[in-house]
Amino acid sequence: NSYLLHALIEVESQYRATAESPKGAMGLMQLMPALAAEYAVHDPFDPPSNIDAGTRHLRTLIDRYGIADALAAYNAGEGAVRRFDGIPPFPETYNYVNRIMDLVDANQSD
Q1: Which candidate, 27, 28, 83, 101, has a CA 20 to 30 Å from the CA of 12?
Q2: Is the pTM of this model over 0.85?
């Protein structure tokens, strides 16, 4: 839903289309280069392209894992979610999932 996408973008990039992480993630939804290539994103800093690819990827993860585990996979990678059979015990990932879910809850109650 749109609340989930808005919360993810807020946490990933604070709505900065030019955001770039030290690990190389780019744009609003912080696409890694391999993911951008997988979804044929030519300019990961272009908001519509970035959001389209990030949304399609998130949809795939949600279909595969459910919402909370999909968010964990978006943050820590699918391998970590499979290895730990759910949200991996990494403080960063745990906090990431909770921050997004808290934002979704807050926005839905407005």
Answers
A1: 83
A2: yes
Question: Would you state the structure tokens that stand for residue 51, as one six-digit string?
Answer: 């959001």
Q: How far is CA 72 from CA 21, 41, 81, in A?
A: 17, 23, 7
Q: What angle do CA 98, 39, 44 make, to 5 degrees?
A: 75
Q: How far apart are CA 90 and CA 92, in angstroms?
A: 5
User: Do residues 5 and 58 lie in contact, with contact meaning Cβ atoms separated by under 8 Å?
Assistant: yes
Task: Report which DSSP code applies to 42.
Answer: S
93: how many CB neighbours lie within 10 A of its CB?
21
What pLDDT digit, counting tens, does each position of 51-83 carry?
999 999 999 999 999 999 999 999 999 999 999
Q: Which of 10, 12, 78, 92 is catalytic?
A: 12
Closest Cα to residue 5, out of 62, 79, 63?
62
Contact 61, 74 (CB under 8 A): yes
